[in-house]
Fold these 3 entries.
Entry 1:
Amino acid sequence: MKKNVLMAVFCLSFLGVTTLPLVAETSGGWVGYVTYTPRPVATMIGFEDVDLLWLRDVSALVGVDGFTFLGRRDTDHWMALTNKGATWLLQIHDATARYNFRAMIQPRNGRITVEKGVDWSGTGRDADAAKAAEMAVQYVQRARSAEGLFSPAEAVDHAALGHTAAPAAASHAAPAAPAAAHGAPAVTHGDGGQAFWQRLVDGNLRFISGRVTHPNQSFARLEETAKGQKPFAIVVTCSDSRVPPEILFDQGIGDLFVIRTAGEVVNEVELGSIEYAIEHLGVAYLVVLGHERCGAVDATLKGGDLPPNIEAIAAQIRPAIEASRFFKGDPLDNAVRENTKLVLAKISGSAIVAEALHAGTVNLKAAYYDLDTGRVAALP
Ligand SMILES: [Zn+2]
C-alpha cells in the first residue's frame, strides 16, 4: 500500500498536479486522511513571521514531544500543540463549529499539511483541507493575541445549527494530562469557570512567549475603574518578589483581586478579603498560586526557632510538610504543592466561600508557578 501511494505521488507530481486528494492509509495510523502538497496551501495563506516565532517559543517551552493546550474551554472545544521537533502538530477540536482537524506545521517555513478530520462541510475534502489550513492560521493568531479561543459567545446551541454531533471523520477524546490547563473545577456550574482560567492561561502564555499585550494598563482604564472595580479573578499567592500576578498573567488595572502573604498562607484577615471579593465584588474565580523554591516553605521545612510572627507563618505551612513527608521526589517541591492545595482547602472551608461553591457562583483552582520558565500550571 505504501508503495502504491508513493507511486501515485510520483505520477501526480510528474503530471504537475499539485493536490493529492483522498489518500487512504490502510497500514495503520489515520484512515482516510486527506493531504495536500504543501506549496499551494503555504503560498495561499501562510503564517506571518510573528505567528511562527510565537509557535517556536511555545514549542521550545514544552520541549520535544511536549504537549500544551493553546486554548481550551472544555472537552469539546480545545486547541493543542505538540512539538515533534521537526514538525509541530496542531490539533483543533471545536464541536460547536464542527472544525476538527489535525495539521502538521513545518517550523522552518510554516508549511501546513492537513492530516485528518476534514469532512465537516459537505463541500468535499479538498475544500475542507484548504479551509482547515486557513483556520489553523486564524486560530494560531487568535491564541497568540489572546482573543479568547472558543469564547462562551461562540457556544451557540447545536440544534440551531442543525448539528447534533461531531463529524464521524475524527474521534476526539481530549488528550490526557495537559500541563497548562489541567485540573477539574471544584464545582460544575456553567463552564466551571473555564473562561476565567483560560484568560489567565492566555495571559501567562503571552508572558512566557514574550508576546505580552499589557492589557488594561491605559489611563482610560484607570479612569474607567476609578468608578468601580469588577475584577474577574482572585489570586492568592506568595509575597515573593518573583511572583507578581499582574505581570505573569499579563493583566492590568482592575483585572485581579490579589492577596499575597509569605507562603500564601491565609488566616482571618485574608479569608475576609476573599469573602469580600466574592460577596461584594461578585468575583467568580479564585486561584491559589504556589511557586517553585518558595522561601517560606523552605524555612519551615528546615525547622529551628523562628521569631514569633514568622513562626505564625511557619505554623500554617507545617501541615503541608507533614502531609508530604513520605512523598517521592523533592521534599521542598512536594511541600510547596501540598501547601498550595491545603490553602485552597482552607479557603473553601470559609462559610461564605462554601456557600458560593454550593450555589455554583465561584470556582477555585490550585496552580503552580515555575520560577525558571515563568509558566503557570494547574495542580491536579
Ligand atoms: Zn514563596
Note: The mean pLDDT is 76.
Entry 2:
Amino acid sequence: MPLAADARTLWRLARGFSGRGPHGARLERFYAPQAEHYDAFRERMLHGRRELIERLPAPAGGRVIELGGGTGRNLDFFGERLGALAAFELVDLCPALLAVARRRAAGWPNVAVLEADVTSYQPAEPAHCVYFSYALTMIPDWRRAIDNALAMLRPGAVLGVVDFYVAEARPAPGLARHSRLARGFWPRWFRRGGVRLSAAHLPYLRAATAEVHLAEGVGRVPYLPWLAAPYYVFVGRRRGEAPLRGAWLE
Ligand SMILES: C[S@@+](CC[C@H](N)C(=O)[O-])C[C@H]1O[C@@H](n2cnc3c(N)ncnc32)[C@H](O)[C@@H]1O
C-alpha cells in the first residue's frame, strides 16, 4: 500500500475519534477521510474475519445479516455462497463506508446495503445468521446491539462475532489469560480510534448463547512490529434451540 495512504489513515487515527455529537456523525467524521483506504489498512489488523465467515451457515436460499458491515469487505469471504443467498443485509451507520459497500455490492442483486443503527434495526424477515465483525468494540451500547441481534435470528440460527478484546482478570476455565500489562495497554492503545476493548463482551456472549465455536488468538497490527493484539472468533446459538437443519457448523 502506498505510504501516503497509510499516512492519511494514521493522521486520522492520531487525531482520534471525537466524543462530540451523535454517534453516526462521529463515525462519519472519523471514517470519511479514510474510507477509500479503509480496506487496505484494516486488512493488516482485522484478523480472523475469513475464519468467522467460513464457520457461519449461509445456506442457499438463506438470509444473512452483517451488523456494522462498513465497506462490505466481508462479502468477499463468502465466495460462491453469497450468490446463492436469498438476501444479505449489510447494516451500518456511516455513509462514507456505506458508499464503498454499495460499489462493492453493485453486482449482487440479493445484497442490500442499509444505513441504520444496529442497536435498533430489525429486518423484515428473521435471519439464518447474524454477525458482527470488529463492530461491537465501536458500539457504545454493545449489550443492546447483541440483544437486538439475537432478536433477528430464526430458531436455531446463529450469532457470530470476531473482535478485539481483553481477557477478564480471572477468566473462566479453558479461556486465555492476558498479562496485566496487556489488559492495561491494549484498551488504551485502541481507544483513540474509538475502539473500546472490553473484558465483558465475550462473557456476555457466552452467557446469552449456547456456544458453537470459540477461538482466541493474537494478531499483528500495523507499525507495532513486536506486539500482537488479542482477538476472538465466537459463534453461538440462542439457548435451548436445535441447530437449523442443513447448517454445517458442527
Ligand atoms: C471497525 S469497523 C468494521 C467494519 C467491517 N465489519 C469490517 O470487518 O471491516 C466498525 C463498523 O461499525 C460501524 N458502527 C459502529 N456503531 C454502529 C451502530 N451503532 N450502528 C451501525 N453501525 C455501527 C462503523 O460505522 C464501522 O463501519
Note: The beta strands are 63-67, 87-92, 111-115, 127-133, 153-164, 209-220, 228-238.
Entry 3:
Amino acid sequence: MPVFKRLVLYMKPYWWRILIAVLASSAYGGLDAAFAWMVEPLLKKIFVTKDVFIFSILPFAIIFIFVFRAICRYLNDYFMRTAAQLAMQDVRNEIFRKNVFLDLKFFYRNQTGSLMSRIVNDVAMMQNGIGGIITGVFRDFIGLVTLLGVIFYRDWQLALISILVIPLTVYPASILGTRIKKNARRGQEEAGYFASILQETLSGIKVVKAFSLEQAMIDQFANANKKYYNFTEKLIKYNSLSAPIMEIITSLGIAAVIFYGGSKVMANTMTAPEFFSFITAMALVYSPLKKLINAYHETQRCIGAAERVFEIIDAVPEIIENPDGHTLSPNDTRVELKNVRFKYQDDYIINNVSLIAEKGEIVALVGPSGGGKTTIVSLIARFFDVNEGQIIIGSNDIRDITKSSLMNHIALVDQETILFHDSIANNIRYGKPEATDDEIIRAAQAAFAHDFVMDMPKGYETSIGDRGIRLSGGQRQRLCIARAILKNAPILILDEATSALDTESEQMVQRALDNLMNNRTTFVIAHRLSTVLHADKIIVLEHGKIVESGTHQVLLQNNGLYSRLCSVQLGNG
Ligand SMILES: Nc1ncnc2c1ncn2[C@@H]1O[C@H](COP(=O)(O)OP(=O)(O)O)[C@@H](O)[C@H]1O
Ligand SMILES: [Mg+2]
C-alpha cells in the first residue's frame, strides 16, 4: 500500500476532529474570496456613490469578519493538531508493539539507538507534518477554488491568463519534492546513527571513562552530527527554494495580468474598481497556490520519515507462532535436541548437536568460550529457530508449542542481570505477576537475597535499576534468581548465573540453586567447574560440536578436553 494512503488510514479514526477542522478551515479559506469579491462593490460605494451607510458599517464588518476568521482558525488548529497527535500516538504504540515482538535476530542487526530514533524522531517528523498538511490542503484548496471563481466571474479572459502559470509550477515542485523526500530520509538515517552513538556512550559511560574514550566519542558524535547537518542543509535548501521559485513563476502571471487588465482599463472596457478587485483576488490566489505546493513538499518529508517507521511496523518476525500450537503440561520436562544445526549469519555455529535431558536431570554445558553454550540454551528457549534438526520438549517440537506456553515453562537466569527501574518487590514479581508479597519474600529467602533487601532503606519497596539504588553484581544476580524461583517453571536454564558472585555468596547461591533445581530439568552453564561436578550429564562443547559427554568421573578418565579444563582450573586453585 502506498505510504501516503497508510498515513491517511491512521487518521481515519479521528475523522470527526478532522471534519470540524476541515469545515473551519474551509470557511477560513472561503473568507479570503469573500473579501476579494467585496473589494469591487465597496470601492464603488465609497469612491463613486459615496454611500455613508456602507462607510459607517464597514469597520464593524471588518472586525466581524476577522473575529469569525479567528474562531475558524482556532477550531482548525486545535482539532487538526489533536487529531494528528492521536494518530501518531497510535503509530508510536503500534511500532513499539511490533518492535518488542520481533526476534532477537532483528535486534542484533539493528542498533538500539537507531531503533529508538525511529520511534521518537521519525514519528515526530510525521506528526509535525501531517496535521498541517491535511488542513492546509483543504483550506488552501478551497481558497484557491473560490478565489479562482471570483476571478472568472470578474473577467474570464484575464482569469485564463492568470492561471496559465499554474501548470508551470508543477515541474519544479515535483523535482524539489523528490529531493526533499530523499534528503529527509537520509537525514533521519543519520539522526538514527548519532542516536546510537549517544545511546552506546551513555550506557557504556564507565568504559568510556576508564579507557579515556571521551574525546574519541566526542569526535564520532560530532562527525555524525555534521553528516546529519549536511542532509538537513540540503533539505532546508530545497524547502527554502520552493517559495522563491514559485514567486518568480507567479510574477509572470501578475505581470501579464496587469499588462492585459491595464490595457482594458485604458480602453475603458474595465472600470478601476473591477480591476482592483481582480488584482486583489489574483494576489490572494497565488498565496494558497504557494501553500499547496509547500504542503506537497511537507508531505514528501513526512513520507520519507513514514517509510522508516513502516519498515519496522512491517518487519516480519522469523519466529512464527503456530496457530494450533499445543500448551505444555507441567510434566513435560524431557528435553531432546536432535541433530540441531544453527547459524546466526553465514557459518554454522551449532553443528549436529544431539542431546537428551531426562525429566529432573541436571545437564551441564561446558567448554571454551565461543563454543556455543549460550546459543544452545537460546535455541531451547526458542529465541532463535534451528536451521536443521529439532528440539523436543515432552513430546512436542518446540515450534508446535505456543510461545506463551513455552515461555511459562522455562525460567532463565543468565549473566545479564536485567533489573527494571522499579521496586525490588516488583522486579522479583516479573517472575509471576500475580504473586503475593509473601511468595516474593519466600523466593527472595530461597535466593539468599532477603537479608540484604531488608538492609535497604525501604526494604522491598526500594527502587532499583537505572535511576534507583546501586546493587552489587552478586546482589543483582540473586534478585534475578529470586525472580526465577518465583516463576517456578519446570525447565530451568542457568547461563553463568553465578559468575558475578564471590566465592562465599556463590556457595550460598549454589544452595539456592540446588533448591531451585529440585524436580526440574536444568541446563547449567558455568565457568567454574566446581558447580557442575554433580551434574547428571556433562556435555563438552567446542566449535559448536559435542566433543565429549558423560559424568564427571567418566570424563576425567577419558583424558580429553574436560580433564584438561579441570586440571587447568584446579591447578590454578
Ligand atoms: N548474536 C550473535 N550473532 C552472531 N554470532 C553470534 C551471536 N552470538 C554468538 N555468536 C557466535 O556464536 C558462537 C558461539 O557463541 P556462544 O553461544 O555465546 O558461546 P559460549 O556461550 O559457549 O561462550 C561464537 O563464535 C559467537 O561469536
Ligand atoms: Mg555464553
Note: Residues 335-571 form a domain with the Rossmann fold fold (CATH 3.40.50.300).
